[in-house]
Specification:
The protein is mostly beta strands. Helices cover 1% and strands 46% of the residues. It is built from two helices and 72 strands. The protein is globular.
Length: 868
């Protein structure tokens, strides 16, 4: 039977109507009201107004918030606290103090100088190479470009074949693809067109092909860029206007040229470079200069800058005199009116496998603006800039993880040098050939980035992969609080302990460079075999002990006079909080017993140089120390699987004593929280939720059931899950019958009724606690959701027992706040006197706190509902 409704208007006098309230209504019951609240006496009255919260910080700049989060009875803002002109991306986490303290907000980085907020999020894997074109056995080089929602991937298979694949970024569907004879493939995007460049197998011709999705059904061969002398090395890059591209080419002879190519594939007048044989070259154009980075075999890396007329303007300038065996990369790094370039290179290092060194250089004078290094990594990509200003910069790297490699993204700015922004493909990363450093591509039409990598497939072959991600975005990030720590979803998950914001666990497996026995001042046993391992540790402000994975265990043979062991360790990548104190703990066995006990610990080291530790303590002393955590008792278990860094996650939810986490491609859980520790993770298969056939758009949990949301349906799973030894599993996810999907994770909120959310039809639903199918609970406000379909936040407001949804219109120029009153079982819609788009809201002190860039002006944009 259809529900019959009646619209009635009740005037309120002095904030209330004595005759019309929640206890005395016309026939039927109230289903929807506007700008009212149910009072404690059961009567409806006019809602309280909102009070502005200030935006002052201890440094000179006021904060500009992009998100609000309730944490530990305090209010947090993900904000920009630097006040850089043109900057619209989050830099820091600010905690509301209140005007009584003299400042309103405390930044995690007190002086506002560093940027602890991770800038990479929403990672999603794309299938780079479908087998319909070729087998991807032995892929050794990869590159990519992106434009108009398409991604073009260039790959080398074996020694003499290259493949070009164009696919849709949203679905992964193939648009076109070919394979040809050649090597060292490259690709660039010019407008909506793609140009593939490669060297033929004799090495005497540099060929190009083009694909214009507007007119071409397949890749078209174009006139060769060069024919004649052997091509020693080359590089390509889009020109600064985006209307063509540049080719840097070094030929046997030797000669070097910078060749412009138009969007029609026609070569122009080249700029003559040095008559020197180079191992690598790289090219980039900025506003008034064309730049060449060159590397002499076993020699220096130099920078030369030319005018558009072809004259050498500045250089050669030696950036680094040490050997560089991998192709460097160069990016336009204009900032604050200064024309600049950013050069990233991999330098040989006697202590490490290599270092990722970067130099920010004035493009006109070659004066160094800033520089820094990340040790013990391989360069994984050319540098890239992003966000509304080019102050946001990163490059990919590969880090040794035990006997294997892992992929990561690292910040290349002086304020947060070494800040890991994403970490993936743990123990399965593969480096591209040293003569072809991939570029991370940006699609200007969508703002998304694409990161080409190689990884070790399950069949043992090197497989290509492209990872989509967002960089320097001001979109909201999901958070979850477990045992007093707030976790922030990102490409590299972060955690806030009430004072510091830093990475959630150490990313890498500690690496021991050497262990050497000797005769010295020690008291170690002689004529025996000992075991040595290293763990990184960190203690947060709540006293939780963070411990890394355990290094590979090294065996040391002690001679007849050896009484000392010298251990040389690679420094950790983090945590990078300003005042975080990291401990390097060395464990060793005692004679005749393989159990590892703490032998030495130090906090005195730098993050850029090898750490030398000397073990002197006797067996008797070491025997009294603690056992390494993977061998020690842990509740009813004996030891635990090593702690590993979490995978990238955009969706996180408290799931009993665990975190349920997911990206678009996969879902996983943490270990159960153990007293005195933060949430920890394992890469063991038992912690992965069995995959589902659709892209994940959100996660949630009710009691013992976990939920994976997609755009079309909801999957649930249950079970006890794995223990810390990896024993146990969750059930296969099963789709709820007849379920709707999820529009946006921002609409998810747990309530006494169950999980409320915005369904795929744009309306508000509830997922009941009894396991039943979702119920359309928001029918009385359906018209409001049609007019204001973008739900930016969902909050349980405890004091007023409201479930509050902030809903913007499609253009996000105005909003309504839609509340469900849990006591009156009534929907209430808040309207405002002027246009008020709301970006975020949360519960603070039992009341709703909201943030709007125009409420009432950009300078005063955080509001809390007034107490009644």
């Amino acid at each position: 039977m259809a529900r019959r409704t009646k619209v009635a208007e009740f005037p309120f006098v002095s904030g209330e109507h004595a005759e019309i309230d929640g206890k005395l209504l016309p026939d039927g019951y109230l289903t929807r009201a506007k700008n009212v609240r149910l009072r404690k006496d059961g009567r409806f009255g006019v809602r309280a107004d909102y009070d502005a919260l200030g935006n002052d910080t201890a440094n000179s700049a006021d904060i500009i918030p992009y998100d609000l989060v309730g944490y530990d009875e305090s209010l947090l803002a993900v904000a920009d606290g630097r006040g850089l002109a043109g900057d619209t991306m989050p830099w820091d986490l600010a905690q509301y103090i209140g005007a009584a303290s003299g400042v309103d907000w405390r930044l995690t980085a007190q002086d506002g100088a560093s940027a602890p907020i991770g800038r990479v999020a929403r990672l999603r894997e794309l299938q780079a190479a479908p087998t319909i074109f070729f087998s991807w056995t032995d892929v050794s080089r990869i590159d990519c470009a992106a434009a108009g929602g398409l991604v073009a991937v260039a790959m080398q298979i074996g020694q003499n074949r290259v493949a070009f694949h164009v696919l849709r970024a949203d679905t992964g569907a193939t648009v076109t693809g070919i394979t040809v004879i050649g090597n060292r493939p490259r690709v660039v995007a010019i407008g909506s067109k793609f140009f593939f460049v490669y060297r033929d197998t004799p090495g005497t011709t540099l060929r190009q092909s083009g694909f214009d999705p507007a007119v071409d059904s397949s890749v078209q061969a174009l006139t060769a860029i060069h024919t004649g002398a052997v091509v020693t090395c080359f590089d390509i890059a889009t020109d600064v206007a985006g209307t063509g591209y540049w080719v840097a080419i070094n030929l046997a002879g030797p000669t070097t040229s910078l060749i412009p190519v138009t969007s029609a594939g026609v070569t122009g007048t080249p700029i003559a470079g040095p008559a020197v044989t180079y191992q690598h070259v790289a090219v980039r154009q900025t506003a008034t200069r064309v730049h060449l980075v060159s590397v002499i075999a076993a020699g220096a890396t130099e920078l030369r800058s030319y005018t558009s007329a072809g004259a050498l303007s500045t250089g050669p300038t030696t950036l680094e005199a040490t050997t560089n065996d991998r192709q460097p990369g160069i990016a336009d790094a204009a900032f604050g009116g200064t024309e600049a370039v950013l050069v990233a290179l991999e330098a040989d290092d006697a202590s490490f496998v290599g270092t990722l060194d970067w130099y920010e250089v004035n493009a006109l004078t070659h004066a160094t603006i800033a520089s820094a290094s990340t040790p013990h990594v391989f360069l994984g990509s050319k540098p890239v800039t992003g966000g509304p200003i080019t102050r946001a910069r990163l490059a990919a790297f590969l880090r040794p993880d035990g006997d294997f490699l892992s992929h990561g993204l690292v910040s290349l700015t002086s304020d947060i040098t070494g800040h890991v922004l994403a970490y993936k493909d743990r123990f399965a990363a593969v480096a591209s050939n040293a003569d072809t450093t991939p570029q991370i591509a940006k699609d200007a039409s969508t703002g998304k980035f694409y990161w080409p990598t190689l990884f070790l497939g399950a069949d043992g072959n090197f497989a290509p992969r492209v990872t989509e991600f967002e960089f320097a975005s001001n979109k909201r990030r999901q958070t979850a609080t477990v045992s007093g720590l707030m976790y922030l979803a990102a490409g590299a998950m972060q955690v806030f302990d009430g004072k510091r914001l830093c990475e959630a666990l150490f990313f890498e497996k500690p690496a021991i460079l050497s262990v050497t026995p000797s005769n010295g001042a020690g008291a170690l046993p002689v004529d025996t075999t000992l075991l040595v391992a290293v763990v990184f540790e960190y203690v947060d402000r709540r006293g939780n002990i963070w411990q890394s994975d355990v290094s590979l265990v090294e065996t040391v043979t002690m001679g007849a006079t050896d009484d000392t062991i010298t251990v040389v360790v690679v420094p950790p990548l983090g945590p990078t909080a300003d005042d975080a104190i990291v401990t390097i703990a060395v464990y060793r066995s005692i004679e005749g017993i393989n159990q590892l006990r703490r032998a030495f610990a130090t906090t005195t080291f730098t993050f850029t140089a090898p750490i030398t530790i000397t073990l002197l303590a006797s067996d008797a002393t070491v025997r009294a120390n603690g056992v390494i955590y993977t061998q020690a008792g842990r509740g009813i278990l004996s030891g635990t699987l090593p702690h590993e860094a979490p995978l990238p996650a955009d969706y996180i939810w408290k799931f009993g004593a665990r975190l349920l986490c997911a990206s678009a491609d996969r879902a996983f859980v943490s270990k159960e929280v153990f007293p005195g520790e933060p949430v920890t993770f394992s890469g063991d298969v038992g912690f992965s939720i069995p995959s589902i056939p659709e892209r994940i758009t959100g996660v949630a949990a009710l009691d013992q059931r976990g939920f994976l949301f997609t755009a079309e349906r909801i999957y649930w799973f249950s079970g006890d899950g794995p223990n810390d030894n990896g024993e146990g599993r969750y059930s296969e996810p099963v789709a709820l019958p007849g379920s709707t999907g999820l529009t946006d994770w921002r609409s998810l909120v747990e309530t006494p009724l169950g999980i409320m959310f915005q369904g795929s039809n744009g309306q508000l639903w509830v997922l009941p606690r009894d396991g039943a199918a979702p119920v359309w609970i928001g029918e009385p406000v359906r018209d409001t959701l049609v007019a204001f379909p973008v739900v930016t936040s969902a909050t349980l407001v405890v004091e007023e027992q409201l479930v509050s949804f902030t809903c913007n219109n499609a253009g996000e120029t105005d909003s309504r706040i839609v509340h469900y009153d849990l006591r009156a079982k009534t929907w209430i819609v808040d309207e405002f006197a002027s246009a008020t788009p709301i970006r975020a809201a949360t519960s603070y002190q039992g009341r709703l706190a909201a943030e709007s860039v125009f409420w009432p002006s950009p300078g005063d944009c955080r509001y809390q509902q007034r107490a009644r």
